[in-house]
Amino acid sequence: MEKVLTIAGSDCSGGAGIQADLKTFAAHGVYGMSVIVSVVAENTSRVIDIQDVAPEMIEKQIDAVFEDIGVDAVKVGMLSQPCCMKAVARKLKEYKPQNVVIDPVMYAKNGCPLMNPSAIDILIHEILPLADVLTPNIPEAERISGIQINSAEDMEQGAKYIYDLGVKNVLVKGGHAVGDALDILYDGKQFYYFRAQRINTKNTHGTGCTYSSAIASNLSLGFDLQEAVRRAKEYVTTAIRHSLAIGKGCGPTHHFYDLYQNGLTKTIIKNN
Ligand SMILES: Nc1ncnc2c1ncn2[C@@H]1O[C@H](COP(=O)(O)OP(=O)(O)O)[C@@H](O)[C@H]1O
Ligand SMILES: Cc1ncc(COP(=O)(O)O)c(N)n1
């Protein structure tokens, strides 16, 4: 079984972060593992508090996974502080895993910050160069590039700017735009468009986590990057289309819709 690791924050409400990543790995039939960088007290409406795991403990968790099991792909999510970023960068440089997907998480869907703004320089200089593919949403691409993004042309320009910072492949996600949900991948030579109809829902908590984990899963399964993104886009679109009205704010996506439809996994036992 392919082995995929997420290095990210824990979302106790289950829709984003480590929890979304592990559900996505399970839905792809790969073996999921997790290194917790921050514990986040959050729900569909707000972030209440963040407690970071000590850098030494982040490093020990990464050692534990690599010395015993090994990984076929890594997804990196929320890294809230420069010290967390440095710990993760040190270990990724040491173990040099293949198929590294980095989601430069800065805010939750409800607008609450998840990255200390002062960490932006470390993010750019220490974390970004480690990515095989970086998946910023529009506000993140704007923050990294300094380019205001209002159109597909602006997304291309932002992707190119970030590529020129030393990122091998850049996927700018259009979830925060209007019109079609268009994502643009730039590999230094060409732009590839991945388009889906925009679904009219507020339940988009964890879409970016889910998408980047699906890309990592597909890369571990041996698909090339374009095919990995194409499949991940289909997966996240289905998860959003059947998203769950759970909680009072932006609800989570449905990570197992297709599996349940095909009757592979679900046994419903209702006791009333
Ligand atoms: N309402 C929506 N309908 C369809 N696709 C969406 C919608 N919102 C986001 N997406 C898609 O979900 C994926 C995650 O993007 P985005 O929401 O921008 O990331 P993030 O969670 O990092 O803000 C992208 O493929 C994006 O196009
Ligand atoms: C622990 C954690 N990590 C990431 C996100 C962002 O989620 P997304 O941008 O996918 O909605 C989140 N809300 N919580």
UniProtKB/TrEMBL annotation:
The organism's place on the tree of life at top rank: Bacteria
Organism of origin: Acidilutibacter cellobiosedens
Every Pyridoxamine kinase/Phosphomethylpyrimidine kinase domain range: 11-254
Entry EC no(s): 2.7.1.49, 2.7.4.7
Pfam family, one: Phos_pyr_kin
Family of this protein: Belongs to the ThiD family.
Catalytic activity, reaction form: 4-amino-2-methyl-5-(phosphooxymethyl)pyrimidine + ATP = 4-amino-2-methyl-5-(diphosphooxymethyl)pyrimidine + ADP; 4-amino-5-hydroxymethyl-2-methylpyrimidine + ATP = 4-amino-2-methyl-5-(phosphooxymethyl)pyrimidine + ADP + H(+)
UniProt-listed CDD domains: HMPP_kinase (cd01169)
Protein known as: Hydroxymethylpyrimidine/phosphomethylpyrimidine kinase
GO cellular component: cytosol
Gene for this chain: thiD
Any one Gene Ontology molecular-function term assigned to this protein's record: ATP binding
Pathway: Cofactor biosynthesis; thiamine diphosphate biosynthesis; 4-amino-2-methyl-5-diphosphomethylpyrimidine from 5-amino-1-(5-phospho-D-ribosyl)imidazole: step 3/3; Cofactor biosynthesis; thiamine diphosphate biosynthesis; 4-amino-2-methyl-5-diphosphomethylpyrimidine from 5-amino-1-(5-phospho-D-ribosyl)imidazole: step 2/3
InterPro entries: HMP/HMP-P_kinase_dom (IPR004399), PM/HMP-P_kinase-1 (IPR013749), Ribokinase-like (IPR029056)
GO BP terms, alphabetized: thiamine biosynthetic process
Entry keywords, A to Z: ATP-binding, Kinase, Nucleotide-binding, Thiamine biosynthesis, Transferase
